[in-house]
Design goal:
Blueprint: E1 3-4, H1 12-22, H2 25-36, E2 43-47, E3 64-65, E4 74-79, E5 88-89, E6 91-94, E7 99-101, E8 107-108, E9 115-120, E10 126-136, E11 142-145, E12 150-154, E13 160-164, E14 166-168, E15 171-173, E16 176-177, H3 180-184, E17 197-200, E18 208-212, E19 214-215, H4 217-222, E20 227-228, E21 231-237, E22 250-252, E23 254-256, E24 260-270, E25 275-276, E26 291-298, E27 320-326, E28 331-340, E29 342-343, H5 348-352, E30 356-363, E31 373-374, E32 378-388
Parallel strand pairs: 1-10, 4-10
Antiparallel strand pairs: 2-3, 2-6, 5-8, 7-9, 9-10, 11-32, 12-13, 14-15, 16-21, 17-18, 18-32, 19-20, 21-22, 21-30, 23-30, 24-28, 24-32, 25-31, 26-27, 26-30, 27-29
């Protein structure tokens, strides 16, 4: 009998890493047996091929999406227009032995919204559904993120956490990501408000976002990753990288045809009591700080390969054109902030073809990426507006 797999099933390849780190030979042996049964059902890569479809995209690199995170069940191609889009054949690379329905490479009608695909493992016991969509890229000169749209995601551990998304002209855009899926690996049956990033009804206007720095427990301490800072950013979170290279789990950036010039919004911030390093040693002379920053960068390298920025390059990459950074002062009242991009100017020809991306990032602990900060540090944000160059 076929079984519906949870939306964010932690795949065999992630369990292998986790079990190896825990050094439990019995579980490791079971994991190998599971792998031999070919029970994975993931989409690894997705692409559109054919010269007749190139005109729908700003450049050919956008016709392919590689290394799809295992915690993602939505695949989005960004196009100039959806007019005349149907029918469009999408091709997929699947985990070994898996099959997909509708058929791999079969033409489908995406003009009225996403198409649902079901991937079935080779042994027929596991199934997973994906939503594949083609979305027009907005060229608005300003965009307001109010965080009123919130969904609940379920991890294989049984934990549930909040996911923030935007709606424009009836289309859902999953531009926002957080590290909640990584924290869910460590905790069973947590509710959304227990995670580092969650929706709060007490925003500046309506709902807002609460980001708080938390302990990762004994497991995190054992691997010198004792805290998890609340974070929210424009981009994707790849849970596959959490156990091997945490800084590669955050994939920053969404394509744009406009150059951002300013980010503004409302915030509250309260630092935690004790600042600790990655060894959980208290550093009495340090006070935790939140961090709000934005980066505008070239999303292709010199060879034309697509580029995203990671936790170890988001502020230092040579492909950065301009950026804005700010450390919010502690305040218990909703306070307005405004930060301006500083740096160079985009090439208008490249910009017109979506050759740049931008991200906006919020964190409850400025040095949380190196696992330094204060447990209890809390940053609230709401009504975030990004303005673009006219």
């Amino acid at each position: 009998m076929r079984t519906n797999r949870p939306c964010h099933f932690l795949p065999t390849r992630c369990w292998r890493s986790l079990l190896f780190l825990l050094c439990l030979p019995l579980f490791f042996t079971a994991c190998i047996k599971e792998e031999l049964q070919n029970n994975e059902c993931d989409i690894l890569n997705a692409w559109v091929e054919g010269e007749e479809y190139e005109s729908f995209f700003y450049h050919n690199s956008q016709m392919r999406i590689d290394n799809i995170p295992s915690n993602s069940t939505e695949i989005v191609f960004r196009v100039r227009t959806k007019t005349g889009l149907s029918p469009m054949p999408v091709h997929f690379a699947l985990t070994p032995g898996a099959t997909i329905e509708p058929a791999n490479g079969s033409p489908q009608d995406f003009s009225n919204g996403p198409v649902t695909y079901t991937v079935t493992s080779e042994d027929g016991k596991w199934m997973r559904t994906y939503r594949v969509d083609f979305q027009e890229v907005s060229s608005s000169l300003s965009y307001l993120f109010s965080f009123e749209h919130v969904a609940v995601d379920t991890f294989t551990s049984g934990s549930t956490y909040h996911v923030f998304y935007e709606v424009n002209n009836g289309t859902r855009y999953n531009h926002w990501a957080s590290g909640n899926a990584g924290v869910a690996i460590l905790h069973s049956n947590w509710t959304p408000e227990q995670f580092p990033t969650y929706s709060t009804a007490n925003g500046y206007q309506g709902n807002g976002v609460c980001l708080n720095t938390q302990s990762t427990g004994a497991f995190g301490v054992a691997f010198s990753k004792p805290i998890a800072a609340g974070n929210l950013f424009l981009g994707k979170f790849n849970v596959n990288a959490v156990l091997t290279n945490a800084l590669k789990a955050t994939e920053f950036g969404i394509p744009t045809s406009q150059q951002p010039v300013k980010v503004s919004g409302w915030y509250k911030y309260h630092p935690g009591d004790e600042f600790t390093n990655a060894s959980m040693e208290v550093l009495p002379d340090r006070v935790d700080q939140g961090h709000i920053y934005a980066v505008f960068f070239r999303n292709q390298d010199a060879l034309g390969n697509p580029v995203v920025l990671y936790g170890d390059s988001v502020l230092t990459s040579s492909l950065i054109v301009s950026k804005a950074q700010w450390v919010p002062a502690a305040t218990d009242e909703w306070t307005h902030f405004e930060i301006t991009f500083e740096g160079g100017t985009a090439d208008p020809t490249i910009l017109a073809t979506m050759g740049y991306s931008y991200t906006v990032v919020f964190s409850s602990s400025k040095d949380g990426d190196t696992f330094e900060g204060a447990i209890g540090s809390t940053l609230y944000i709401d009504e975030i507006e990004v303005e673009f160059k006219n």
